[in-house]
Design brief:
Number of strands of chain B: 0
InterPro entries (chain B): Globin, Globin-like_sf, Globin/Proto, Hemoglobin_b, Hemoglobin_oxygen_transport
Distance between the termini of chain B: 18 Å
Order of helices and strands of chain A: HHHHHHH
Protein name (chain B): Hemoglobin cathodic subunit beta-like protein
Number of helices of chain B: 7
Shape of chain A: globular
Number of helices of chain A: 7
Number of strands of chain A: 0
Helix content of chain B: over 70%
Distance between the termini of chain A: 21 Å
Helix content of chain A: 55-70%
Largest sheet of chain B: none
Strand content of chain A: under 5%
Strand content of chain B: under 5%
Oligomer: heterodimer
Structural class of chain B: mainly alpha
Keywords (chain B): Heme, Iron, Metal-binding, Oxygen transport, Transport
Family (chain B): Belongs to the globin family.
Organism (chain B): Lates japonicus (Japanese lates)
Largest interface: A-B, 19 and 24 residues
Order of helices and strands of chain B: HHHHHHH
Largest sheet of chain A: none
Structural class of chain A: mainly alpha
Chain lengths: ~140, ~150
């Protein structure tokens, strides 16, 4: 299920539309993940406030979306381009890779809410594939 | 068995009231076929469903999308008894249609996204959580007769 040239163009095109709202998207996606999938809160026991839109959620939403932006720029070689991030997630953060799918789903929900007209089924499949490829690149160093 | 609070029941009804079955049904099913193309295997009689534009212009997809969401209406109306309400549907999808039950989860995700497009910020995190709890119960019920 690798990204076709059309997928990459679609992702870049949609990213251009949403990049201005990247921080809001990150905050909202993370907020939803923590509320809708409470098991994900186990990774953030060191945060004072896990409620939607809180300061640590906002800050981390921005961090995550910076990573997504980086991935868009390295879309032709996600595995190579995200090696450092993969090592971080594998050896330091040790996030169960099943959670990448969960966060991806919540990002898609936020995209649908914020861009209801632009988030067509074609954009939906391209973004789902891209986030899946991103997750695979992040999992690269796990074992 | 899944128990819903009164608040959760009214949240589910409130969101459902905003859903136009004739719009959201076809959108959700189209997304399933486009985003997860292996699901095409279950719709051999629908004609051309092999490209996004074919799916979006297919009358049978549109009609079946409405059928699926009408069935979800039954779950909304019987929220405390979804398993029993869906026992027949589960058996049907297993014995007659031979549907891999993982696809119910995929359909649930697409229904959520289709609803998100329509109701936008009315689907706030707490509402999304309640809606997901409801759909999880539906997916469970659809799995229940697979043995």
């Amino acid at each position: 299920m690798s990204l076709t040239a059309k997928d990459k163009d679609t992702v870049k095109g949609f990213w251009a539309k949403m990049s201005g709202k990247a921080e809001d998207i990150g905050t909202d996606a993370l907020s939803r993940m923590l509320v809708v999938y409470p098991q994900t809160k186990t990774y953030f026991s060191h945060w004072k406030d896990l409620s939607p839109g809180s300061a640590p959620v906002k800050k981390h939403g921005k961090t995550v979306m910076n990573g997504v932006a980086d991935a868009v720029s390295k879309i032709d070689d996600l595995t190579g381009g995200l090696l450092t991030l993969s090592e971080l997630h594998a050896f330091t953060l040790r996030v169960d890779p099943a959670n990448f799918k969960i966060l991806a789903h919540n990002m898609l929900v936020v995209m649908a809410i914020m861009f209801p007209v632009d988030f067509t089924p074609e954009v939906h499949v391209a973004m789902d594939k891209f986030l899946g490829a991103l997750a695979r690149a992040l999992s690269e160093k796990y074992r | 068995m899944v128990k819903f609070t009164e608040k959760e029941r009214s949240t589910i009804r409130a969101i459902w009231e905003k859903v136009n079955i004739d719009e959201v049904g076809p959108d959700a099913l189209a997304r399933v076929l486009i985003v997860y193309p292996w699901t095409e295997r279950y719709f051999g009689t629908f004609g051309d469903i092999f490209t996004a534009s074919a799916v979006l212009n297919n009358d049978k997809v549109r009609a079946h999308g409405k059928v699926v969401l009408k069935a979800l209406d039954e779950a909304v109306k019987n929220v405390d008894n979804i398993k029993k309400t869906y026992a027949y549907l589960s058996r049907l999808h297993y014995e007659v249609f031979h549907v891999d039950p993982d696809n119910f989860r995929l359909l649930a995700d697409c229904i959520t996204i289709a609803i998100a497009c329509k109701v936008k910020s009315a689907l706030d995190p707490q509402v999304q959580a309640t809606w997901k709890k409801f759909l999880s119960a539906v997916v469970d019920a659809m799995n229940s007769q697979y043995y």
